Amino acid sequence: MGTSTLIGLAALALLTADAGIVRAQTPDPLAAMAALRPTTPTPAPDVVFRTLDGRSARLAELRGRPVLLTFFTTW
Q1: Pick from 71, 45, 41, 43: which is nearest to 58 by CA?
Q2: pLDDT at 23
Q3: How far apart are alpha carbons 63 and 39 in whole angstroms?
């Protein structure tokens, strides 16, 4: 028996052993971490804000475009 034959038999043994594992019994990773499941996205409420140049803008005007909102305060 050559080395390649032994490697082939080892690979076949691993694949056969792996086929016997029932995947449905593996624990849910989100449940194991007590993590919340993602919810269905909902539209953000319309918000009026001031731009850097002082104009008023509405979030609804930007619908359909990516928007990054950063809320911060200086206490």
Answers
A1: 45
A2: 57
A3: 20
Please name the residues in contact with 51: beta carbons below 8 A apart, sequence gap of 6 or more. Answer: 57
Q: Read off the pLDDT of residues 1-58 as tens digits, 9 standing for 90 and up.
A: 677 777 877 777 766 665 555 555 667 777 777 777 778 888 888 889 888 899 999 9
Enter the DSSP assignment of 65.
S
Give CA–CA dist 28/36, Å, rounded.
Answer: 12
Beta strands in 1-75 (DSSP E): 48-50, 56-58
CA distances from 53 to 26, 46, 61 (A): 55, 20, 17
* Tokens 């194991």 found at: 32
Q: What is the spatial distance between Cα 11 and Cα 23, in angstroms, rounded to a whole number? A: 20
Q: Where are the alpha helices (H) located in the chain, listed in sequence order?
A: 3-19, 29-32
